Amino acid sequence: MFYGYATGTLSSRKSERATYESMPFRFLAGGLHPDHDTLAHFRKTFLQALTDLFVHILLYAQAMGVLTLGNIRLDGPTIPADASKSSAISDKRLLELDSQLRTEVDQLFALTEHAEQTERPAGLVIADAIAFRHERLANLAKAKAV
User: Fold this and answer.
1) Residues 128-146: pLDDT tens digits?
2) What tens digit of pLDDT does each residue of 99-126 get?
3) Of 137, 71, 57, whose CA–CA distance to 104 is shortest?
4) Any idea where the domains of the chain sit in the sequence?
5) Which of 143, 52, 145 is nearest to 101 (CA)?
6) What is the 3-state secondary structure (H, E, C) of the chain?
7) 25, 19 contact by CB (below 8 A)
């Protein structure tokens, strides 16, 4: 009901229909589809308590700094989660990456020492490559700490 109020779905018939058509309503209803008569009776019976609870929810959201007046939108930019596949890493993989990067850094340092004597790959800027790998090592160290 609170999500319905927040999104402007005030009618019990629209709320019932939304439990079939709208993913947020379906999720919040737990996959159930309460009848519009049940929703209307519940609202009428507990109107005062619902009003007080809705005010408390809004005050709590404001205190947390997440209250934005307006429409709630489900579409928009994709925001990567902390536990996404691209940012999650196992301890074993972390250690493998660490040793691989250390090996690459050692190879680059060796390549720098012998730059005049050996032929470098085309387009390789050694200082940039070393800085890039040091940055990755620092990020892996932060991941280890976490």
Assistant:
1) 778 888 888 888 888 888 7
2) 777 777 667 666 665 654 555 556 667 7
3) 137
4) 2-64, 91-145
5) 143
6) CHHHHHHCCCCHHHHHHHHHHCHHHHHHCCCCCCCHHHHHHHHHHCHHHHHHHHHHHHHHHHHHCCCCCCCCCCCCCCCCCCCCCCCCCCHHHHHHHHHHHHHHHHHHHHHHHCCCCCCCCCCCCHHHHHHHHHHHHHHHHHHHHC
7) yes
